[in-house]
Amino acid sequence: MALSSPPVVFTHRAWAQRIAHFDYVYGELALLRRMMCLVASAEHGYCLYSLARGGLYRFADSSIESTAKKIATYKIQYLAAAASTLGNILSMSHPDRKGFQSLELVRAGGSHLPRKLAEKIRDTTCSRLITSFGSAETGTVAAGWAETLDLDNGEVGFVVPGGHIGLVDDETHAPVANGLGTLKIKNFGLASGYFSETPRRNHPSRTARYSHDLGSISSDRRLSIHGRSSNVVNLGGDKATIERIELNYAKAPGIRDLAAVPVHDALGITKLIAIVVLNDQWSERKAWEYVRANLPRNFWPVKFVIVDDLPRGGNGKVDRARLKILIADRPLSRPILSAKPNRRILPKLAWEENMRHRLVMSMLSAALAVAAWQTSAQQAPQSEFPLAARAGQDSKAKATAPAGAVNQGAFDAANWKYGPAFNAPPGTKLWNPAKIKLMQGGKVVGGTVVGVTDPQTYCAMANAGYDFTWTEMQHSPSVWDAAVRAWQTCPHAKAVPGVRIAYTDEQEIQHALDSGALVLVVPTVDTAEEAREVVHWAYFPPMGARSQGGGPAFDPAMWGSVPGGYRQTINDNLVVIVMIETLEGLKNAEAIAAVPGITAVFAASGDLGNFTGYKMGDPDYERAINIVHDATIKAGKKLCGPFAWKDRADFTCFQAGNERAAIARGVRAELGELANTHGKADVGPFAAK
Q: Which residue among 12, 264, 475, 678 is the active-site one?
């Protein structure tokens, strides 16, 4: 027999060490030594522990109903399960714990235990509840009574004796000093490898395990888990990347495109919702059959949300920040799992017979309903949709309009008379203060925000006195989900949200406006055609072709509750500014400024110098600025430029400095003569050089 360590996950010695430490992990609970044990999460350590102490164990069944029956029938004393499984089992439990009275201990592991779920378990099922943390490779490394832990803040237990947990950088594995890092676990039963894996004598995994869980440890050895350092979701102890889950969902018939979104239910348990784009082969029944046959129960989506297309960014990747908006705004299919499971514990055969009877009756009822509908369809008009085409018949709608239609004759898109459904109520006033001030001839100033990752900094700028925020999305690495979070943090600040997008196209403009922008700045507009493209995507019909896709802008917390309605009034309240920055733009300045729907034209001081080769004050530079000036005034539009031009003739809207410059100016104004009067050091890093 070879003397080298075998390349397996567990050895007999490792299990012996773990069993020896179980008494600490579960404290005074000697009842574990000889008891009936049901392991719902199928963790073999507990099975071996029970057997080593002369006890018995049972595995859970695939259905929650039969598992609950097994608990009652075998008088299970110890239940070990993931939080999601406990939540499902809990739904079967009567408040007086009838059928569950034998339970003396419940252990939650494998995933986060929400506080609400823990309280419900202790109140209705078993008062003795332990939560623990570990993995197949490390064994249990932390455990504790649920009532002693701050579960809402991620506490999972106390670090067990014999184990060591360090906090390191996820990439370099260097120790971290700020108290939050990836777990580096050294434990008494640490596995040195996996089945079929070539032994690696000096590999770091032989002495420590890097779990990719982000954690922290308190002074009294409480371990808190704050999430994963990789794109992994934990569903009842089963872990997988979102991308891997989506690949499996996408194999179901009838799905053209798909994304998965993790959400939390009322008890805080992580679930999945599938957002799907359908093809002609879609069938809910077949999708359910595929999911049940091919995926573990924890990975079943609770709902399908059906959409026309998935939101995607400029790089073609799914824009996950907008997926939850789709969940809220789109109709849902029927849930795959019943929201209210059967609370009775029925024998399996009786349950199947009951379902068979119900299926036969449902099919019979459906057949009778179809026959009745086929008979009545020829005898009476449809009352719910009186103008709808009859089933299976060509209504000739393209050639002939129904009685009472405004647009009579053959369908003519070019001469279509737009209806009044989205007209603003009579007398509706403007509600965008930036647009009101600009139209009244006032001077409006936008404060530039380069970094929107910190909503508090954004809100400080938005309440500093500017008329609008110039959220920079062209010359900064900011992403739309960060901009949306910032705008939603203080939607009704003194300055309305504005943004300079990166380029002229439907996606950029829709992102900006659906997210709530009221001032839209579009750079490098060189032709009248590009200006018309801006108007086309910025305004709702009939003025443009903006799609009514929903988004934060429609939320009552932003603009959904404005007088007259957001959809009905935003065309009048939107400020659209196009920037002329190049020689081509100067050539077409008059045509650009004349495009209907353009509110203002911005003479780009920096890039007009960049593209002409002259600096401010040079005759050629000033000529370029005056070309923009003349074209804008001739078109009757507003003229914009840098804040330094606030006293220049006819300029009424401006871009001010960014947040860094604003902080520096504010400090100088506050300190006055004390600004920059630092002490003088002769040595060290602060010494004069």
A: 475
